[in-house]
Amino acid sequence: MIPDTKRQVEDTVRAVLRDVLALDETRVATFDADTPLFGALPELDSMAVAGVLTELEDRLGIIIEDDEVDGEMLESFGALVAFATAKTAQ
Amino acid sequence: MLRFGPASGPVVMIAAPLFEEANRTRALLVAICRGLAERGLASALPDLPGTGESLIETRDARLADWREAFAAAADVAGSRVLVLALRGGALIEAEAAAVARCHISPIDGAALVRDLIRTRLAAARESGEAFDPAAIAPPGPPIALAGNTLSRALLAELLAALPTRAERTVRLSSDPLPADLKLNSAPLWRRAEPGQDLGFAHRIADDITEWAATCGS
């Protein structure tokens, strides 16, 4: 079952960050739209980015093109959720 | 090749993931082997040519070599072999003379190569160097991808490779693809650092032990 509502996508992004970056459940539960990610989260380096994107693709049934990956969509939790939601709707 | 468990009976041949995922999951695979041994089942974990303690350079490795090596290891391991493949391991066990196969989260070669390229692009973005993902086709020199130097021929082979047909498939509950069993664990192979999940290892050992008993005699 591929998640599609905005809430389900948000839950999935949260779960992916938790699983791929090995973060605490309680810590990811505090993430909101403004929580900074790339550049602020030490666990999210360039190697980890690849794992996060691929896992998002697999869980949401989307394809993320290489040229769509930029600083903006990884900047904050809100930005990443917005990006994933838009892709899921396509 | 690491061997565990009793000297007789069926042997579970472990086909480890490929490239960096092998490092990330090695402790997990060893824990699975130990778990199987505790439950009275033998297992073996071979290193493919160009990996681990092999004397061959990774850049000289080919898919056919890996398939042949794994099959040869299975032959010496025992007379009744069950294959347990994790992720890309499902791409290299095709020639093993096995009674049955179980795949954990199998992926096709194209997905694997996409992953390698994505990691290379992420690193390139950070260092400011250019990398053209389209420029990996033969002919040409080997390419450095995600910590390994691989021949273009191997990459081309991987792009076309598909998992062998397996009697049993296990996936994580977060994975929407179909499976005979879904387990609620995090994908250790996606983490940047090697990790461990003993709970997952024991659940797999339980499942494989049960499954092995049903695999005919």
Q: What would the average pLDDT of chain A be, to the nearest integer?
A: 91
Q: Tally the beta strands of chain B.
A: 9
The tally of structural domains of chain A comes to: 1
**Content of β-strand of chain B:** 15-25%
Query: What structural category characterises the helix and strand content of chain B?
Result: alpha/beta
The assigned CATH architecture of chain A is Orthogonal Bundle
CATH superfamily of chain A, please? Answer: ACP-like
How would you describe the overall organization of this protein?
The complex is a heterodimer of chains A (90) and B (217). Chain A has 90 residues and is mainly α. Chain A contains 5 helices and no strands. In chain A, helix 1 (6-21) packs across helix 3 and helix 1 crosses helix 5 (77-89). The longest helix of chain A has 16 residues, at 6-21. With 217 residues, chain B is α/β, with parallel strands linked by helices. Chain B has a single domain (2-107, 163-214), classed as 3-Layer(aba) Sandwich (Rossmann fold). In chain B, 36% of the residues lie in helices and 17% in strands. Chain B has helices at 20-38, 63-77, 109-127, 152-160, 198-214, and strands at residues 2-4, 11-15, 42-45, 81-86, 100-104, 143-145, 148-150, 168-172, 181-183. A 7-stranded mixed beta sheet of chain B has the order 1-3-2-4-5-8-9, with helices on both faces. The longest helix of chain B has 19 residues, at 20-38. Chain A binds chain B through residues 1-2, 15, 18-22, 43, 45-55, 58-59, 61, 66, 69, and chain B through 114-115, 117-119, 121-123, 125-126, 133, 146, 174-176, 186-187, 190-193, 195.
